[in-house]
Amino acid sequence: MKARVHVTLKHGVLDPQGKAIAGALASLGFGGVEDVRQGKYLELELAETDAAKAQAAVKAMCEKLLANTVIENYSIELV
Amino acid sequence: MKARVHVTLKHGVLDPQGKAIAGALASLGFGGVEDVRQGKYLELELAETDAAKAQAAVKAMCEKLLANTVIENYSIELV
Fold this sequence. Notes:
2 copies of one chain form a homodimer. Chain A is of the alpha+beta class and 79 residues long. Chain A is built from 2 helices and 3 strands, in the order βαβαβ. Strand 2 of chain A pairs antiparallel with strand 2 of chain B, so a sheet runs across the interface.
């Protein structure tokens, strides 16, 4: 079973990396980019075949390691 | 208009960051994680309202800046 995890900065948390990308796009001539936010995307290959157990396991992984829940949100999608 | 861009390493390209995460998960006691691949996730806020033009613009941004197309794939989703 595969899990896709998105880790994004919470609303209101400054994103200097995103700002740098927006600046670079502007200097390359791409106008009309109002904002860029960068997050992380993880694909996990799990041995677990039960969807509920996999969801619970990945949630625990996010809470403990993959996301800093003080400043980041995460979302889990099983495929 | 908002664009969501996923940038992932091509199949066969080594992903040391993913391997490090897999190792860290294992050492935290999360068994059954067979593989982890880390990618980037970008949210772009665009002034453009025409979907076709926005798609073309984001594709050009990916080719020029956001993705290294030698080793990375990208996918674009407009919302």
